Amino acid sequence: MSFRTTSPTPDYVEDVSPGSGALPPRAWYASSDAASLSLNGDWRFRLSQTADAQDDSFAEEGYDAGAWDEVRVPGHWVLQGEGRFGSPIYTNHLYPFPVDPPRVPTENPTGDHLRVFDLPSDWPADGGAVLRFDGVESCARAWLNGTDIGEFKGSRLPHEFAVGHLLKPAGNVLAVRVHQWSSGSYLEDQDQWWLPGIFRDVTLLHRPTGSALDFFVHASYDHVTGEGTLRVDSDTDGRVTVPDLGIDLATGETATVAVRPWTAETPRLYDGVLASEGERVPLRIGFRTVEPADGLIKVNGRPVLLKGVNRHEWHPQRGRALDLETMREDVLLMKRHNINAVRTSHYPPHPAFLDLCDEYGLWVVDECDLETHGFTEQAWRDNPVDDERWTPALLDRAARMVERDKNHPSVVIWSLGNEAGTGRGLTAMAEWIHDRDPSRLVHYEGDITCRDTDVYSRMYAGHAEVERIGRGLDGGPHRRRELPFILCEYGHAMGNGPGGLADYQRIFESHERLQGGFVWEWIDHGIKDERYGFAYGGDFGEELHDGNFVCDGLLFPDRRPSPGLVEYKKVIEPVRIEGDGADGTVRITNRHDFADLSALTFEWSYQLDGETVDSGALAVPALAPGESADVKLPQPPAAPGGAETHGTVRALAADGTAWAPKDHVVAWGQFPVSARQVPSVAASDGPVPGEGLITLGPASFDARTGALRSIGGVAVTGLRLDVWRATTDNDDGAAWQSDVRHGPLWRKVGLHRMRHRLDSVEPADDALTVRTRVAPAARELGLSTVYRWTSDGSRLRLTVSVRPEGHWTVPLPRLGIRFGLSAADRVRWFGGGPGEAYPDTRTASVLGRWQSTVDDLQTPYVRPQENGARPDVRWAELGGLRIEGDPEFWLTARRWTTEQLDAAAHLTDLTPTDTVWVNLDHGQHGIGSQSCGPGPLPQYHLRAEPTEFSFVFSETG
Fold first, then answer.
1. Measured between alpha carbons, how far is 277 from 621 in angstroms, rounded to an integer?
2. I want to staple 492 with a disulfide (CB 3.0 to 4.6 A). Which of 95, 455, 593, 932 is the partner?
3. Catalytic residues, which ones?
4. The whole model's pTM is what?
5. Across all residues in the chain, what is the average pLDDT?
């Protein structure tokens, strides 16, 4: 006798179809005069570990769920309940379950959700009703008042169900069963946390008789005549009115009138109304035309340069459940940092985000909820996008994106998805989109031949390759060579970095075919966690994870801008201000694509030794896009006592805008006027032997080792040559990369464990010389290092001479000295600031006088690493010492050693000590973006070569 049981997984979970019962997709709008009821709030919740653990009885009216837990909707259950509802999982591309499409594990966390609601007393008695889910991960089945209304997949896409016939005035029971894993999970392998739940809005919409169904706003712009043409196609007959334009016409009819066009720089929207028999829908209409012309992406007849970011939806406590104010904060931060474009990686965002892009002005690449990256592990075998059984699901995803978002003027490009290989399903998607909406371009980076797409797109191509593409020397199929090029991902902003952004921008601006790109990515996906501050992959005990690769944004998880975002703002600023101070003029160039400079005011200022001594308004013509003008500056002030003089010109918002206050700094430029006087110390004092000590001017040294002990009353510990830095994510690089990764190579050579051999201590009449050799165990290479100390009686000069020995095949992480100070807190310096900078991330560094606490010098990267260096420092004061550099130096100060920083996995691993460790560096190695891109360019490598540099120490008053 044998027994056979059926699969414990319900059929609909593993069915490759997109679902059943949902209405056809349609245009989204925030509101109308039809009634609606938000069902967001606290829902009853029960978690099961398998899809079949519970029957459907919970959906019946009268079911007692009083003993259940509660969760917030929108929300993810794994981010609620203090761990009782499971934990988040982070993988970059590996599926966290066995790959056997469309099958999923028996262990399939399943959340039953219950919401009991009454209709408002003024809810209309006539008409129908629609229940809308804006986002549920990854598969859901829903019941209303005990009736099964359908099931669906497509986590970041809307689904609507007709439910008017099921409603009653009070006691309505909405039941939703959500499965973490489904066949849809194979299509949603994006680089992000796996977070199940109802994470976007749930809304009940009244649908009056004759209400609007789907409609398509066609609003083109003719840049030759200055006229816009409007036609609104609607499934329901009605009239369209636009009062500001005097338009009043029937749906399907066309009107052509003079308009101001919509662009990301000038986002002019016209308020209108679509009025059908039963509903009035507000419209926000932007007239613009997008086309591929002359091998370029053109909007309103002009090519555009995309200065973009990739944006995942993220909140450190709510995950992908974002509210409107968080979305608005993102858009305002983008605008204030000169970003003009966003790629919605790798799924359509909450629809309200696109409303904000329309309002404030951002070009949008709207990307479909599709990625099958994990199939790379089996050479793309069984990839769903090349399996016709899955094509209906792919087309459903494309349609739900396009139909929902088609009326947004900000959306200029549709993207088929990300890292899903190639196949017939993608071709079907591209054909459907081209047919449904020929007014926009289609993008997909994986279409390397550009057979189905209108843009040649790459990710993480190095500078040299991008230059070749710009010059038309990249080869490839003829069709591809005729298309515009964008970097859909570049500048991987993981940890300290990205470096090399300015070099990319120079290349973009040099070749018309190169139309910019999108930095990866907008925000670190750190989860607020009392153990670590912010948690990343592996912190929740995941079986498979990709560590802190999920923290690779220009914003920290709490939305504080990182130094990378400050750098990017400067690199892409829309006004170029250049001058060398030689002839008293600056060249102003308008780098906007559409706007002139009439919305900006300009001011000049002069700085003596970093302090502003004179300033005023600067008259600059309202230059058209692309135009330049040489503008004469006032005479610079006299430089008393050989003071270093600089000039600064800033472009400011003339008036407050929707996204920035009056006097917001849009762009700036700085230039030298007179050179710095290098500090000098006459060697008039000599070393004096004493009881175990040698004194030289204000300093004392250990007589046996030559180690500096104090300068005046300031104790100094551990001064020696330092070449190590706590490796950055970009130093360490990605394991899959074939290029040299300097972080692992530095450790292999042993630069993190250098030994310091004392060769001699040599007092002389006018100097104390200490000779050493600095080298790693097990290696023949080393650095012959000589410290030469001199003094004029009150000041102390150290000259460090470094000569490489052996065969050096790697650059140095850093080169300078480090030492410890006690009782150091406030830091003042004249040099680059206010934030950190490194050789290939220093464009935004402003020369001036700055001050900070030691703690505020630190940059709180989610995974601790080298940070906080200030460049071009002339002098610094801290811990009772004044330090002057010859030449300028890099300054770092922190309350832990480099070794402690290097060993830390989270910020909470760092414990402040009583000693402040100071690094004065002659050089730093570049940063690059090799965590998922190219390393630093050769010109930013810190090569081991004969070097000499000096510092002058004195006590502060």
1. 52
2. 932
3. 419, 489
4. 0.97
5. 97
